[in-house]
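Question (not urgent): is this output format expected?
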Amino acid sequence: MLARLSLLVLGLELLLYGLAGGVLVRHAQWRAAWAVMLCLLVAFSVRWGIVLVTFLLAWLHRTPRAAGQRIGALAALRMLWREGMAMFWVFTVLQPLAAWFMPQERLARGDKAVVLVHGYLCNRGVWWWLRLRLERAGWRVSTLNLEPVFGDIDGYVPQLDHHVARVSAAVGGAPVAVVAHSMGGLVVRAWLGAAEGERVATRVERVITLGSPHRGSWQATWGPGRNARQMERGNDWLCRLERAPLRVPFFSVYGVHDEYVAPQDSARLEGARNVAVAGVGHLELLRDEAVARAVIAALDGSLSADRAEPPVQIKRGSTAG
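Got this back:
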């Protein structure tokens, strides 16, 4: 559904640029090359403008950062650039063409399987970078689309339950790992905290969330849909979720400069091993190499889930893919 909607929006955007370019060429006597360049400049400016505004709003509700987590002006500009590029690829290419970029998985008995759960306003296409990285590390990756796009988070629970059950059966009944981004982490927690949570927990080896608003985000105020209301700070649904048991080893990897989870320490989760990342935006968490290494370390057990261990902080690495 989201892929079709994304293609429709992209098509309308291209039509608008085509009409504007035609006017400039025919009536303003512009060269076609200049008109194309202007349209591309506007398209990129809109996307980086959205990124800039979200970072500014997140800054207003930011968590005070420790000295070792602060970045300079040049690093901040690089972070804005990378996040803008990530946004361009996710919403202009990967999600509209998810069926092409994310072929159906092939699972076999004995495979090490990991289920990837996307977040708000996303589909399975958002996992393209991390899927490649996990497959190179020897994991079989399975993804799903949560629908409807603006639905109740509790409504996604049966979809996740069915998918994990199918994947677990395909690999011979072994428990699978789960990696979730943004809202996807709340879906996983709601699934494990449901009435049958003890039963479903037997099918899960461990959970890793990336930039999930475990205690809500001020940015959710601007989003449409029931799921956005459930991510607002202090709402009743989120308060009930906080009382739900985790049941399995849990990791929360979060960005101290995240522009969608604000305040950023809302992504810290009581009872989980929390891993802080500096200089990485919300979407960039899905393609940053240092984050990918942390995810793989959590999956293979080299990073302990014991929350009594010292806090983990990682520096932004090179971009994967």
